[in-house]
Amino acid sequence: MSSDTSATFDFTAIKRAGLTQSEFAAIVEVSRVTVNMWVNAAVRPHSLVAKRVSKLLGLLGDALQANLLPLPAGSHKGKEPRLKAIRSALRSAANYSASN
Predict the structure, then answer these.
(1) Nearest to 14 by CA among 98, 96, 45, 46
(2) pTM as predicted
(3) Three-class DSSP category at 88
(4) How far, in Å, CA of 100 to CA of 95, rounded?
(5) How would you write the pLDDT of the chain (100 residues) with one tens digit per residue?
(6) Domain segments of the chain as ranges
(7) How far apart (Å, rounded) are the C-alpha atoms in residues 24 and 28?
């Protein structure tokens, strides 16, 4: 697995946001195993994915600050409604960031 050693990421935003690694993986469109390897510093995101990961981590931070994220995992019935709510919160955070 190729990696981008120049990029550093603060993956604590995933946990602070109450997202599971599986949820973050679904949003980034990679496997949960891949996210787990990133979080545990086994590998860094490939350069093709690094910009998207960086942007999403930033948006997670913005969504946290603006209190836009849905309730933690386990508080929704089913995976899909929660992922839709997370994606919606990230879009709201992107719109909020763009307007400021």
Answers:
(1) 45
(2) 0.70
(3) helix
(4) 9
(5) 444 444 567 788 888 888 888 988 988 889 999 999 998 888 888 888 888 888 888 888 888 877 777 655 555 555 667 788 888 888 888 876 666 5
(6) 12-99
(7) 6
